[in-house]
Amino acid sequence: MRKYSGLFIVLGIMLVVIIIFAGYYNSFMSLEETVEGRWAEIENNLQRRADLIPNLVASVQGYVSHEAAVFTEIAQARSRLLGAEGVAGKVEASSALDSALGRLLMVVEQYPELKADRRFAELQDELAGTENRLSVARLRYNEAVTTYNARIRRFPGNIIAGLIGLERKDYFQIKEEAREVPRVEFK
Question: Cα 72 vs. chain centroid, distance in angstroms?
Answer without folding.
Answer: 24
